[in-house]
Amino acid sequence: MKQYISPDKSKTFIAKTQQIQELINTTLYILESFGIPLDSTPRRLERMAVAFLASGDIKKKSDFKKAKDLNSGYGLKTRDIIIYINNNFGENISSGSYDDIRRKDLKLLTVAEVVLQSSPNSATNDSTRGYSINPTYAELLRTFGSKNWEKTVAVKLKNIEPLSKKLKRERDIAKVNVILPSGGKLTFSAGAHNDLQKAIIEDFLPRYGHGAEVLYVGDTSNKYLYLEKDKLEKLNFFEISHEELPDVIVYSKKKNWLYLIEAVHSSGPISELRLIQLQKLTKDCKADLVYVTAFLNRPKFRQFMTDIAWETEVWIADNPDHLVHFNGDKFLGPYKE
């Protein structure tokens, strides 16, 4: 069986016996079979597993056969779940963190209705609200380990869309499609930061890129969404895995310019300190460097304006035909009509 939580991944956790670790891994396998997405941190998965076990009064693997459910009249309040977990699974969770049980540990399970609330119509902060396993899933728990159990689960749950599939579809619907200058396509996850990166690629580069090619762009869910590692190495760019990597890196062969672009939504403009960091990291770069801070709109620019470093550029997506030059007298002079 797959090891979702292993001792080497649990060094920062409270030590658990091998029996408890096996129980947690078995529980996570069961939850994955029930369609629960397991793409969280090991600690969060561990907490979800023990909260689920508490909701069914399951202390050891043999207890799966007698798992309790809502129809059993069994249910634990969040404070009682903490006590249950501390007493049976080697934890020392603070009694004051009872709200984390509802908001974090049981969240996916209640959304998927694998765990039910004993009084679903009560207020969210109702201290008498209890949690217990949905009888449909408890029935499958009691047969765990039987021959063709996975097939039994598939048949029993055939009319229930797995939460993992539902969430994946929602994420896919929210994707942002981006067209590269080369004609290639990228897909960003949804969000203001990625909307700005899309604008940089589709609106800034055609205006100011001088035929530039995208060599790197990250995504909020995938830091290395697009990476031309070999081309960056040929320019003597600094180590790609470095945490100081800008949001977008673009190269114009025509000008021999390498654009280092920061897409600012909530933080991260090219400040004086950031500029010094980037200059040190790119001291061996063969291309001339252009530093750009990009914003979605003027209000966002005004928020960070005093932080912008001299000898850098600013581009604002809702005024795409203009640049703001923080370059002293470099561009001083009359404009021709």
Structure description:
Residues 177-328 form the BsuBI/PstI restriction endonuclease domain. Helices cover 36% and strands 17% of the residues. With 337 residues, the protein is an alpha+beta fold. It has two domains: 7-168, Arc Repressor Mutant, subunit A, CATH 1.10.10.1820; 175-326, 3-Layer(aba) Sandwich (Trna Endonuclease, Chain: A, domain 1). The protein has a seven-stranded mixed β-sheet. α3 (78-88) crosses α4. The model has no long low-confidence stretch (mean pLDDT 87).
Unreliably modeled segments: none
> How much helix is in the residues?
25-40%
| Average pLDDT metric | 87
What CATH architecture label of the largest domain applies? Answer: Orthogonal Bundle
The number of distinct helices, counting runs of at least 4 residues, comes to 12
What does the radius of gyration come to? 27 Å
Distance between the ends = 73 Å
CATH homologous superfamily placement of the largest domain: BsuBI/PstI restriction endonuclease, N-terminal domain
Whole-number tally of structural domains: 2
Layout: helices, strands, pairs:
Layout: H1 18-33, H2 42-55, H3 78-88, H4 98-105, H5 107-111, E1 115-117, E2 131-133, H6 135-142, H7 149-156, H8 163-173, E3 176-179, E4 185-188, H9 192-208, E5 213-219, E6 222-227, H10 229-234, E7 248-252, E8 257-264, H11 272-281, E9 288-295, H12 298-304, E10 312-316, E11 323-326
Parallel strand pairs: 8-9, 9-10
Antiparallel strand pairs: 1-2, 3-4, 5-6, 5-7, 7-8, 10-11
Helix pairs in contact: 1-2, 2-3, 3-4
